[in-house]
Description:
Layout: H1 4-13, H2 20-28, E1 35-36, E2 44-45, H3 48-58, E3 75-78, E4 88-91, H4 92-109, E5 115-118, H5 121-130, H6 135-146, E6 156-160, E7 163-166, E8 169-172, H7 180-198
Antiparallel strand pairs: 1-2, 3-4, 5-6, 6-7, 7-8
Amino acid sequence: MYTIDEAFEILSRNKLTTHKETVRNWVRKGVIQAEPLESRKKGYRISEAALEQFIKERMPDGWGLYPESVTGDVRDVVKNEDEAAYHVEIDVEAIKEQAREEMWYELLGRFIFEDYFVLKKSEIRAAVEHMRYSKEFEAEVWARCSKHTWGHATPRVPYLLDYFMFEGKRVPFNKDFGGKDEQIIHALIEKIRRDRVQGKHKKS
Length: 204
């Protein structure tokens, strides 16, 4: 049986969350099956089978099925003829990233994420001004943000594992900034700026 802390360590190693409170929320909502102790205030116990089932359901197809020789930080070569009929160079990080991305989209599709970040017009304005962009660009940013409500009254983006969803795309936090709020806001503004430069988004 695992405590919340122990379950968090296992889930974080499997790249399923970076926040312990997310594990608590999943337990409270029944997403992870757990047994309360004498009272819920004293915590929960999660069985090994329940945690393994949770992880198994959320891992993308093929995760863990790559040859054991696929290791290393950047590239490796499969040399076992039973695994490959010829020597093949594998981009290990690309494989891992593709698996992580597929898993991330699958979790968001099931509405399993860490939380929403609420987009506030005043914070968007302050960030745009700080980056010395025009009022016209500020209006464009807010117009796109204001459509992203996820069924709520105020615009917001769901996030999970240092990425957030915006207009159907997985956007990484901007780690040049310290706080999560700034990391999301500046990454969002930069995405919209790049879209504008590349002509990927047409004004409506």
